[in-house]
Specification:
Radius of gyration: 34 Å
Number of helices: 29
GO molecular function: alpha,alpha-trehalose-phosphate synthase (UDP-forming) activity; enzyme regulator activity; trehalose-phosphatase activity
Family: In the N-terminal section; belongs to the glycosyltransferase 20 family. In the C-terminal section; belongs to the trehalose phosphatase family.
Number of domains: 5
Number of strands: 34
Helix content: 25-40%
Main location: cytoplasm
Organism: Entomortierella parvispora
GO biological process, one term: trehalose biosynthetic process
Length: 990
């Protein structure tokens, strides 16, 4: 959307468009499709009693399978008197409305809505009657069940009273067959027509229905004969008129009920600072059966009025991508849940192929609509391959990726069978963002261990580029929430809740009924609280709102069992300690609960952020009551003034509840002020603006810095400037720059040099009084003295900057601070010995201060590289946190040295000494710095900053790396021979 005209161009974050890729668009499509007759034909408008147009309104209907449940307008699916299919409700009716990566941020009208819970007949018989009481249908209503290989129409005639009639009914075409679950014959479900009072189940907290089976690609339906892949789904007939009916059906664009609401709100809140914002995502349904004309119309409508670009995917890819790979593989692993069933369908190759296909569809759509200057922002774990897919086709594009869920430790992530492909997909971005520091640290360590790349706290260093890593904790739109709190309906609910629970303390909680939200642990902790503090009996109530999830799981039954037990133990005729609402509530009710709460209890077992805590803080502006927060929630790292708990320690949680209820007003006020300060500072607007601005900055740095933009050094341009300079400083690396890096450490230590021509060239350069030449090497002092000892006035830097011999002097100067603790050497040597024994061919070089482990001669170079990364992580985690050291990755080696010494520090010392010698005059007007590996990068950075002279004049600085690769240097040369040829040409100028 175009920015406000009041904003000047200088206020815009970017002059180009911002393409925001998210799996589910903020909009979806509502089709009006006629219902069917018994024979499967579509009912005419005259015979349809649903509405005046003869159509049933079906939102987000999946046209590829025509499996949506057709319901007359105004009919509630929760009404027990209506016939409903016994099979799984259609996953294609907005199947991804539960794709909730908003981390707790609620939408303005759907309270972070999840899809309707997948209810079975028994659940519906026990469900309360909907407020919308439907009229009795004047004709039979037909419901269409979802299936992967066919379609069926379930009709509800009069109840079958005997076995013969039942057999006859089962033989009818289209009649539902007996279902089976995991190979076991199942008893047919009870009739939905049975009144609730006649149901044999009286438990108000019914156990969860069996987890619904998932649609599978047809080629995989017979892989596991012992498992009934279709469950109770009857076979559906192929429909020859599917495309036709959707081509003729009327449709409208509606706001989606789900998706990443936090992202939607955050990006929309800064659209005035964007030249144009465009959403890229799916419509929440498969679209392979939609005709081209309908697709074109939908695409035009979304682009024109909603600034959105739809991504069209087919049925199998849509199902395999989300329900199989994302939900069965990625989501558990990223939340520290390892798969326990090796025969799971999610591990089949097909699910990965579907994931790749959907990511490819996103990349193709983005590339097709990309314009020069656009900024691409890819979001969340559904699209982790998209950055690299785009990078392959748009090398210069500005690409950012943000992960809204946790990133696991390397020990967990390495269990993913496609771990390398996922990481490589993410490394196509210029900037990868995470919610917390721990998630970013896990990502860096995982890339280092699995891909054997160089990592630093700033990001990942690749061969031809660099990937920055940033921490951007998401927030909420505080202004919007404050306005919604003023709604009269919120005040009404606050009044009613205070009246109903007068004299009681309220603990409020609202979570998805999922295994990572820790609802069961919360109930057990509350039970422990009532056991430890019986004085609170009759004085406290826990209101737990349990939202529906996209999948059935055993947590629902487990939580219901605990709730039933606690209420049966501590309830009486007038008091019930737990109010368990397994349903969604309105946004006004939600804000009312947070306002009247005496305590908010969040016990996530693993969570990206969980912004319910932020919303609770704002709603407590009057009471300022405390917050109890799990240490495993992402927000805990920012909300330090809360009461921290380990959700697995029920006694600790119980004690925190008691502490919060007994907390005095002054302490409440202090804690709340600290919480509010963070919430109001780190808002959704700040998060989105910070990420986009950082992405633009990082992309510019990468474009200026790395290989494809580093030109070849042209000596015809450099030589005239060298010749006219009055005083020149030459900083030359040795191994890999002046001499090929092919020798073992023992040869380097002895100082043997095979290139006499190289030594003569250096000697010629030093003879010119205008030249100040330094050899910047990682070799020992003894080695450099044996090679260059015969050259007078040559400056030497040994052991990577630990020792320096200034030009014209014969004494080495120690650059390590006096009194530095060198006890780390013993511990590092022990680790190096451990890896040397397990890496045949590797060796240890022990210098005066640094210690180097070489694996250049290892029998298996790939294994040596992997061992080097393991060793680097081991040293940094075990020794680096105690002693001020760092591990520097070189060419086929790993060097450990003090943190305060490097070639850059040595260069700074050299330059400062030259300034003192010249008594304030400009010491040099030409600088040449040449190196070949990562140990030279800091030296390049320092030299690039010497462009301006002491008197304000511009100094000529040439930084050059050997070989075409990513570097801080501004030029490159092909190899060692090119370096020597260039130095010889400079020597000839004299």
């Amino acid at each position: 959307m175009v920015a406000d005209t009041n904003n000047s161009p200088g206020q815009l974050l970017t002059s180009g468009r911002l393409l925001v890729a998210t799996f589910l668009l903020p909009e979806t499509i509502s089709f009006q499709v006629p219902t069917r007759e018994k024979d499967g034909r579509f009912r005419s408008a005259k015979s349809t009693s649903t509405n005046s147009t003869g159509c049933s309104n079906v939102t987000s209907l999946n046209p590829s399978s025509l499996s949506a449940t057709h319901v007359p307008a105004g009919t509630s699916l929760l009404h027990p008197a209506l016939p409903v299919s016994y099979s799984r409700p259609a996953a294609s009716i907005n199947p991804l409305s539960a794709v909730d990566t908003s981390n707790g941020a609620m939408s303005d009208h759907t309270q972070r809505s999840s899809p309707p819970r997948k209810t079975g007949p028994r659940d519906m018989a026990l469900s309360p009657t909907s407020i919308l009481v439907p009229p009795a249908p004047s004709s039979p209503v037909f419901y269409r069940a979802a299936g992967s290989t066919g379609e069926a129409v379930t009709t509800m005639p009069k109840p079958i009273s005997n076995k013969a009639d039942r057999l006859k009914a089962e033989d009818r075409p289209g009649a539902p067959q007996r279902s089976s679950f995991h190979g076991q014959n199942a008893v047919p479900p009870p009739s939905i027509l049975t009144p609730p009072s006649e149901s044999k189940e009286a438990n108000v907290f019914p156990t969860a229905a069996p987890r619904p089976t998932l649609n599978q690609p047809r080629s995989r339906t017979s892989d596991h004969p012992s498992i009934n892949i279709h469950g109770s789904l009857p076979q559906r007939r192929s429909s020859i008129d599917s495309a036709k009916v959707f081509a003729d059906a009327a449709w409208t664009v509606e706001k989606a009920n789900g998706g990443n609401i936090g992202l939607h709100n955050a990006v929309n809140s800064i659209q005035s600072q964007l030249a144009k914002r465009i959403w890229v995502g799916t419509l929440g349904m498969a679209t392979d059966t939609l005709p081209d004309r309908t697709r074109g119309d939908i695409k035009s409508e979304l682009a024109l009025n909603h600034s959105s670009i739809p991504v069209f995917v087919n049925d199998l890819d849509f199902e395999g991508h989300y329900h199989q790979f994302c939900k069965q593989i990625l989501w558990p692993i990223f939340h520290y849940v390892l798969p326990d069933n090796l025969r799971s369908k999610g591990y089949e190759d097909g699910s990965w192929k579907h994931y790749v296909a959907v990511n490819r569809a996103f990349a193709d759509t983005i590339v097709e609509n990309y314009r020069q200057g656009d900024t691409i922002w890819v979001n969340d774990y559904h699209l982790m391959l998209v950055p690299n897919m785009i990078r392959e086709r748009l090398p210069d594009a500005s690409i950012g990726f943000f992960l809204h869920i946790p990133f696991p430790s390397s020990e967990i992530f390495r269990c993913l069978h496609v771990r390398k492909e996922v990481l490589e997909g993410l490394l196509g971005a210029d900037l990868v963002g995470f919610q917390t520091y721990s998630f970013a640290r896990h990502f860096l360590q995982t890339c280092s261990r699995i891909l054997s790349v160089e990592s630093s706290p700033k990001g990942i260093q690749l061969e031809n580029t660099a990937v920055n890593v940033g921490i951007f904790p998401i927030g909420i739109d505080t202004q919007s929430l404050s306005i919604k709190r003023q709604d009269p309906e919120v005040a009404q609910w606050v009044s009613e809740l205070k009246e109903k629970y007068s004299g009681l303390k309220l603990i409020v909680a609202r979570d998805k009924l999922d295994y990572i939200k820790g609802v069961r642990q919360k109930m057990l902790a509350f039970e422990r609280f009532l056991d430890l503090y019986p004085e609170w009996l009759g004085k406290i109530v826990l209101i737990q709102v349990a939202l529906s999830t996209s999948e059935q799981n055993e947590v629902q039954g487990q939580v219901s069992d605990v709730v039933t037990r606690v209420n049966s133990r501590f309830s009486n005729l007038s008091y019930q300690p737990i109010v368990f609402l397994r349903q969604d509530i309105t946004f006004s009710q939600y804000l009312g609960l947070l306002t009247v709460a005496d305590l908010c209890l969040i016990t996530s077992l693993r969570d990206g952020m969980n912004l319910t805590s932020h919303e609770y803080v704002l709603c407590q502006e009057e009471q300022k009551n405390p917050l109890v927060l799990s240490e495993f929630a992402g927000t805990y790292g920012s909300l330090g003034a809360c009461l921290r708990v380990n959700p697995w320690n029920y006694t600790e949680v119980a004690q925190a509840i008691h502490e919060g209820l007994e907390m005095r007003e002054p302490e409440k006020t202090v804690r709340w002020n600290e919480l509010k300060k963070h919430v109001c500072t780190n808002t959704a607007q700040f998060w989105a603006k910070d990420f986009v601005s950082e992405l633009i900055k990082v992309h510019g740095d990468v474009q200026r810095r790395y290989s494809i933009h580093i030109p070849l050094l042209n000596m015809n341009v450099v030589l005239p400037e060298f010749k006219t300079a009055k005083r020149r400083l030459l900083l030359l690396d040795y191994d890999g720059t002046l001499l090929p890096y092919e020798r073992t450490s023992s040869v380097r230590y002895k100082g043997r040099a095979s290139s006499e021509e190289m030594v003569r060239t250096i000697a010629r350069l030093v003879k010119d009084p205008r030249n100040i030449v330094y050899i910047m090497s990682g070799r020992t002092r003894e080695s450099l003295d044996k090679i260059f000892g015969s050259i007078e006035n040559l400056g030497l830097c040994a052991e990577g900057g630990c020792f320096l011999k200034p030009a014209g002097k014969t004494v080495w100067e120690n650059q390590v601070q006096e009194g530095s603790d060198l006890q780390w050497r013993k511990k590092v040597m022990e680790m190096f010995e451990y890896y040397k024994e397990r890496t045949p061919g590797s060796e240890i070089e022990e210098k005066t201060i640094p210690i180097v482990w070489h694996y250049r001669q290892a029998d298996n170079p790939n294994y040596g590289l992997w061992q080097a990364r393991e060793c680097q992580n081991h040293i940094e985690e075990a020794v680096g946190v105690i002693y001020p050291i760092h591990a520097v990755v070189g060419r086929k080696c790993l060097e450990v040295m003090p943190r305060d010494v490097s070639k850059a520090h040595a260069t700074k010392t050299i330059f400062e000494n030259l300034v003192q010698q010249q008594a304030g005059a400009d010491p040099v007007d030409f600088v040449l710095c040449v190196g070949d590996d990562r140990s030279d990068e800091d030296m390049f950075v320092y030299c690039n900053g010497l462009k301006l002279g002491e008197n304000g004049s511009e100094r000529r600085v040439v930084t050059c790396t050997v070989g075409s690769k990513s570097s801080e240097a501004r030029w490159f040369v092909p190899g060692v021979s090119s370096v020597l040829q260039g130095l010889q040409a400079m020597a000839d100028q004299d």
